[in-house]
Design brief:
The complex is a heterodimer of chains A (about 425) and B (about 220). Chain A is an alpha+beta fold and about 425 residues long. Chain A has 3 domains: about 80 residues, RNA polymerase II/Efflux pump adaptor protein, barrel-sandwich hybrid domain (OB fold (Dihydrolipoamide Acetyltransferase, E2P), Beta Barrel), CATH 2.40.50.100; about 100 residues, E3-binding domain (Dihydrolipoamide Transferase); about 220 residues, 2-Layer Sandwich (Chloramphenicol Acetyltransferase), CATH 3.30.559.10. Chain A contains 12 helices and 18 strands. In chain A, strands 9, 12, 13, 14, 15, 16, 17 and 18 form an 8-stranded mixed sheet that branches. A 4-stranded antiparallel sheet of chain A has the order 1-8-6-3, with no helix packed on it. The longest helix of chain A is centred in the middle third of the chain and has 18 residues. In chain B, strand 1, helix 1 and strand 2 form a beta-alpha-beta unit. Chain B has a single domain, classed as 2-Layer Sandwich (BirA Bifunctional Protein, domain 2). In chain B, helix 2 crosses helix 4. Chain B has about 220 residues and is an alpha/beta fold. Classes of the chains: A alpha+beta (about 425), B alpha/beta (about 220). Chains A and B meet through strand 2, strand 4, strand 5 and helix 6 of A and strand 1, helix 1, helix 2 and strand 8 of B. Strand 5 of chain A pairs parallel with strand 8 of chain B, so a sheet runs across the interface.
């Protein structure tokens, strides 16, 4: 038995009060899983379990104040690998409805129904079974009283995944009855990283709270393509910046949110908060997720500054060198999914903002100009907006302005002289 | 000196600030960010800690202007937040400063006591009643959550906020406790001047508090 003691919280802390047991007696607990909440003076804290095992006895109830060092609970420790060294469980028998490749859906249902049988499974085991899609009836428990432990499930998963498959499933499908493949053999559980959890939380919050509408415009980027082609070498030489299409779009979005402030606002129950600062977040795809660093005061920055900042911030995002400040306070977001080849999407609004602009891939397409077919560099710009805050008409005016400023770039750029110090203040 | 990031987002709705806290707390726990101090104010809000007395005086129902109510995961009892009260949330690894949880509370008290002293307000600790007191009235409250030696939630100092809303709750689980503010104390003419409390500049108090925080925690606050 492993004794769980009231933890040492410092020399001057003599006792703690049990606030809440997070695990019930008889339940399985994993190493490091929060076991009990403790309060001392104005501080709440949690005690993680030092071992994996079964919480056998809770010795002090909620509300009791216990001196530091005193035993508050007993855990029956399950040694690592104990389950694995147990007699090898017999292979699970095939049950009706469990065989066959095409029974995938019913397998899953079966798995869920299995929870309602009289056997008692710990919440952890039930959760794992659900995640792996395992019918608990088919597993041989090695725990106390034949109970199924976490190790049993992991062991089962490991074993079943090791069954060699003869040929690919498509080959076998055409020649002989389908290979018996259980869902768990084709699946793998990836634990959620904290980043993943935050992204998930935000996405759910946004899509459940905000009535999203997406509107798409087609924009001719040929003028900017010409401009870019003519200037990118100089840009790189003079400013060490790779001139992409992105800063042009950020610049025109910044002007447009300034002109249409409802796009730069937040919905609150009390009213719509118009922000008088213009901070554009740019969604950057990183190794294990997505991060949205923010370009502060984008309306006041010229093309060179924007290009430089985008390059810098995206680099730091990928190197995980962003500071907290870099990701806070965005008022509008731009996401460039075109980079991966997508033509247009329906981006999800960053919670607390009103709109997000998605940029598709910029590709040459035949289009009609003055009843003649021309080859132009085209892009689809999609704006998702919060329909509580604005209506389609405003969203389209906003996109019309962006389209106008991007397509009109030629006229402006011709007047702009390049120099060692950069370009004129058009953007 | 150790560095500590400073965030001053201004007036932030409690729930939103709590979200920010949790996000930063997770990031801090994963060592993705430095120690961070958030200094802000909340719109009128009642918050209850885990150990708050269950029976609080009844809040007026159906009052559209009634403050928001949050049941939080910090230590301590009920409290009120409102404009004019300076709230601080250190999201920090406590081991860099002290290995003693209660010493951390004393440090937070020190920050407030030293700030008040700069405004010529004499405040004290009261044994067994964590927080900052001016004689028999409480002026600074503390409520903290520490998980695996990382902290969230923090302290609040009444500068010139409305004190009436405290009458609807049992602040800090102390029945009949009276709250006070810097404005009230100074307004009583402790300095001998005529109502200096009305002149209280909350930005100056914030600035002073940041200075005291960096002294007590021996950090350089970086914006």
């Amino acid at each position: 038995m492993k004794e769980i003691i009231m933890p040492q919280m410092g020399e001057t802390v003599a006792e703690g009060t049990i606030l809440k047991w997070l695990v019930n007696e008889g339940e399985r607990v994993e190493k490091d899983q929060p076991l009990v909440e403790i309060s001392t003076d104005k501080i709440d804290t949690e005690v993680p379990s030092p071992v994996s095992g079964i919480l056998k006895n809770i010795l002090h109830k909620v509300g009791e104040t216990v001196p530091v060092g005193k035993v508050i609970a007993l855990i029956e420790e399950l040694k690592e690998g104990a389950a694995r060294s147990a007699p090898f469980p017999p292979p699970p028998l095939e049950k009706g409805g469990m065989g066959g490749f095409d029974g995938g859906v019913s397998d899953e249902q079966k798995g869920v129904e299995g929870f309602e049988t009289k056997k008692i499974y710990t919440p952890l085991v039930r959760r794992l079974a659900k995640e792996y899609g395992i019918d608990l009836e088919t597993i041989y428990g090695t725990g106390a009283g034949g109970r199924i432990t976490k190790e049993d499930i992991l062991d089962y998963v490991e074993r079943t995944q090791k069954i060699p498959l003869t040929g690919t499933t498509t080959e076998t499908a055409t020649t002989e009855p389908a290979e018996v493949i259980k869902p768990e053999e084709r699946e793998e559980l990836i634990p959620l990283s904290s980043k993943r959890k935050i992204i998930a939380e935000r996405m759910v919050k946004s899509t459940t709270e905000i009535p999203h509408v997406t509107t798409t415009f087609e924009v001719d980027m040929t003028a900017i393509a010409h401009y870019r082609e003519a200037n990118k070498d100089a840009f790189l030489k003079e400013n060490s910046i790779h001139l992409t299409y992105f800063p042009f779009i950020i610049a025109s979005a910044a002007s447009a949110i300034k002109k249409y402030p409802m796009l730069n606002s937040s919905w609150t129950e009390k009213g719509i908060v118009i922000k008088k600062y213009f901070n554009i977040g740019i969604a950057v795809s990183i190794e294990d997720g997505l991060i949205v660093p923010v370009i502060k005061g984008a309306d006041k920055k010229g093309l060179i500054d924007l290009a430089r900042e985008i390059q810098d911030i995206a680099k730091r995002a990928r190197e995980k060198k962003l500071s907290v400040d870099d990701v806070l306070d965005g008022t509008f977001t731009v996401t460039n999914y075109g980079i991966g080849g997508s033509l247009f999407g329906t981006p999800i609004i960053f919670p607390g903002q009103t709109a997000i602009l998605g940029i598709g891939a910029i590709i040459k397409r035949p289009i009609i100009i003055n009843d003649a077919i021309a080859i132009r560099q085209m892009v689809y710009l999609s704006l998702s907006f919060d329909h509580r805050v604005i209506d389609g008409a405003q969203a389209d005016q906003f996109l019309t302005m962006i389209k106008g400023s991007l397509e009109g770039w030629r006229g402006k750029s011709e007047k702009v002289q390049t120099s060692a110090t950069g370009f004129g203040g058009v953007w | 000196m150790r560095r500590c990031k400073l965030l001053q987002p201004g007036l932030v709705e409690y729930g939103k600030a709590w979200d920010i806290q949790r996000e930063l707390f997770t990031a801090r726990t994963n060592n993705e960010i430095d120690d961070t101090l958030i200094i802000l104010q909340h719109p009128p809000t009642y918050t209850f800690g885990r150990t708050s007395e269950v029976e609080q005086p009844v809040l007026k129902e159906n009052d559209p202007d009634a403050p928001a109510v949050y049941f939080t995961d910090r230590g301590g009892g009920a409290t009120y937040h409102g404009p004019g009260q300076i709230v601080g949330y250190p999201i920090i690894g406590i081991k860099s400063y002290t290995s003693d949880y209660h010493t951390y509370l004393r440090m937070l008290e020190d920050v407030m006591i030293k700030t008040l002293a700069d405004f010529q307000i004499n405040s004290q600790r009261k044994k067994g009643f964590t927080g900052v007191w001016v004689d028999e009235k409480k002026i600074g409250c503390i409520g903290v959550r520490i998980i695996r030696d990382f902290t969230m939630h923090g302290f609040s100092l009444n500068a010139n906020n409305d004190l009436a809303p405290f009458d609807n709750i049992i602040p800090c689980n102390i029945k009949g406790v009276k709250m006070t503010s810097m404005k009230e104390v100074l307004g009583k003419g402790i300095l001998g001047t005529k109502n200096p409390g009305s002149e209280l500049n909350i930005l100056a108090v914030e600035e002073c508090l940041l200075k005291k925080y960096s002294e007590v925690f021996k950090v350089t606050l970086e914006v």
